[in-house]
């Protein structure tokens, strides 16, 4: 190096100057920097809120771990525990135990003369030992010395206008309401929406006379130990789990309960995190656009600084600091909004969670989300910044001197790779399954590629095909899309990515909600009586006739268990991984009929209407497709059953699809007529009654005569389901609103990036005599095509994305509302057009000389 | 006795790729500038004047040949090292002023000194702004100043670091006739007082006549006209 350069060494400006310059330089551009910050806010807010909420939930689960079960150990069975089990309980060494016998039954509210299906819980003992049973008035108990008393679910008290002292009839016994039940440890209010709880002292269970054949009951025993469940006992329980299950007994420990609640919460928050991440990615698109707009103005200042002796690295530092700080401020504001949202989320999610979630700022989670968002947003911001490293100082004297195109800059590719890496890492962390993560990541990459190809195809097609005969405005507008310095590909990618991400999310949402949509059509039954005994059927039918209601279906239900599948015993098949255990061990409630119904179309084989046990051939049965999948069945496979002690050999001769959303009696297995008629059965009668008064009168009449019969008012169930899905929908929409808000900001910043290309052209055209109207129409043609193609391609891609998500992640059918889909293409296209036109207002209305001077 | 040489170009060429061809903008050009001398570079549009100025000032590098500025061979230096040379020894005045729009007049003038890490730049900048007649306008932003005032700020900024060579690219190109005269007078006065070498690119024959030497550039070839 020569002497002159050596003399000048050691004169670099310090960090102080860089900071001062970074601050000074923002003076005329704070609006654009604010756009950058805004692009970040909602994505960060969503991430911070969900991350912190997840920590709150985890902490709460840890804190309340024992209260989640209320005891140390719980056994459940649908039959009363046999002598062996009772003997086993004696050996456990528990310090105390409690009984909880649960029945689905009808409650008759004497004052209002109304009935309702409820979950009756007959309880004895000190349960819960951990956590509290919340009642109003407080601290109520079910001490049998109080006589026949009942604690009634809060919602039921409101619905039936019950007061303390009112009478409720359960089966043959009458109970006096002593208060409201608010919460039991480990149970969410969602669980009791369909069948509200009524608690009574166990001592009066017999008096209800509801424990007979056919009633739906489960028996629960709770235990508490000196020092919780010991490791030895835990090991023993796990070793004997298979044996318990074979006898229809299940158990839960605090750890099991914690794990299962943890899994449920994890699934819930993973989806929400994914939504937050989509918002952040969209924000990234907005940031790249906003920073590009910002730097477009700054490149000349940067060149001047370089002329004045500022090194490339120092001038980069000035802009890097600005971007880091604005990104930091955006993330900080996002975090503050996120903390606010975090405080609101427990109210939104409360119904799904079996405990109150205390609001608490979890600094580690907040910092984690903040840092992650800051890194990602900075990487996005660097994409347009990095090429400026190569900006020639010559640009100060010759504006045509540009920078190396970004695609040839290895550091830009490194930043792209880092964004990809961070996206993949986040996908893995959120989905916790490599397959799903690869799917999410691959989907995003494919979407970018397809959009880029669509943009290039449009550009190429216009270059070759643009007709010379078109009017000037159209010709000019179309050729803007392929002329040098056009931003066709990048704008289509940005608009399309926004449309793709938002609409994929929307399609997933409507598909999830559609799954829970149940048809309440005029010709369908709206009241179902079940647990009707064979000798009660005619009386119930008679009562229905008297009230001029219409019997839609009558099905006998026979309980049975599988003993062999393809002539191999179920006990042996339980060890096979490709078979689903629930289908092997469950108690099947099957029916017999001589025909199939409209909502259960045949998928394979032929339904046999009648058969006889006298024949030596196995009985031909029709099996539902889900069981076929669970047991890997095919036509001709043998199934052996234990029908209440009587062995029956069957063969699969047809496979049915059942629409479970239809509120009608649905069965996994349908036998032909002539086989099960003599087996002990319960009956289910589905009736269509007009008006709620008729339904209430029929229910009342049947239940008063046969307390063992239960009734479901399907209209009420539909309303409850709708309420639940409304709540789920609200959570989904609440989170999706973050994505939509960010998407709008990203759209504005994307369109802003094209402003500078168009400004000079418009001004030149006007100086050549073009009217303001003509320049606006030229821009309109351009934005209309960009918005239309970007949104159509993005939404087209989202159909594929949503299909993959619904098939592989949510495992549900994709539902596409075509009207909304086409409407969305038009809306996003129009929004692009409107944003573009609003954005161009200043350009078009400016005098040419003023704009040229500004340029 | 002749003055020392502050800038020398020896067989400097510059070419750019243009499609599949190579466009030679500057062809084997050589000249020398002495300390305190003023040189005008003239020639028709597109003849390579701005390219030559950029290479002389270390804003760009030649494809071949050697450029020595005050003893430093610019070809051998990296862009950052050339930036240091520009900061220490070079001043610029541009046709379109090129003030930083977000900085006041005072801050614009201070920048070259601040880049050196000097902390007492403000007094020198205020003094210089006073010399160019803008003592009352120091806190104004470029957009609040007329074209002539902006060019005065640019001149003050160019002289604040006491450059060895001042490069001016069409310094009056964007100004009316009256303002042009006062700017030219200011430029030459300050140049004379500071003993700076002035190299300017101009179309203005009257302005070229005021310099010690005129270099004509045509089709990339530099010849000494006067």
What would you say this structure looks like, in words?
The complex is a heterodimer of chains A (855) and B (226). Helices cover 53% and strands 17% of the residues of chain A. Chain A is an alpha+beta fold. Among the domains of chain A are: 73-227, no CATH class; 550-688, no CATH class. Chain A has a 6-stranded mixed beta barrel with strand order 2-3-8-5-7-6. In chain A, strands 12-14-19-16-18-17 form a 6-stranded mixed barrel. In chain A, helix 3 (30-63) packs across helix 10, helix 12 crosses helix 13 and helix 21 packs across helix 24. Chain B has one domain (5-224): P-loop containing nucleotide triphosphate hydrolases (Rossmann fold). Helices cover 34% and strands 29% of the residues of chain B. Chain B is built from 7 helices and 10 strands. The mean pLDDT of chain B is 88.
Question: Which key terms come to mind for this protein?
Answer:
heterodimer; A: 855 residues; alpha+beta; disordered N terminus; B: 226 residues; alpha/beta; Rossmann fold; six-stranded mixed beta sheet; four-stranded antiparallel beta sheet; 7 helices; 10 strands; 34% helix; globular
Classify the beta-strand content of chain A into a percent band.
Answer: 15-25%
Tally of discrete structural domains of chain B: 1
Whole-Å distance between the termini of chain A? Answer: 40 Å
Give the rounded overall mean pLDDT of chain B.
88
The main sheet of chain A comes to: 6 strands, mixed, barrel
Overall morphology of chain B: globular
Instruction: Give the uncertain stretches of chain B in residue-range form.
Output: none
Which fold name fills CATH's third level, the topology of chain B? Rossmann fold
Residue share in helices of chain B? 25-40%
Report strand order across the widest sheet of chain B: 6-7-8-3-9-10
What's the total helix number of chain B? 7
How much of the sequence lies in strands of chain B comes to 25-35%
How many separate helices of chain A?
24
Topology, number of strands of chain B: 10
Instruction: List the chains of the largest interface with their residue counts.
Output: A-B, 40 and 45 residues
In total, the number of strands of chain A is 21
Characterize the largest beta sheet of chain B: strand count, sense, and whether it forms a barrel: 6 strands, mixed
* Overall mean pLDDT of chain A: 82
**Rg of chain B, Å, rounded:** 17 Å
Span of the ends, CA to CA of chain B: 21 Å
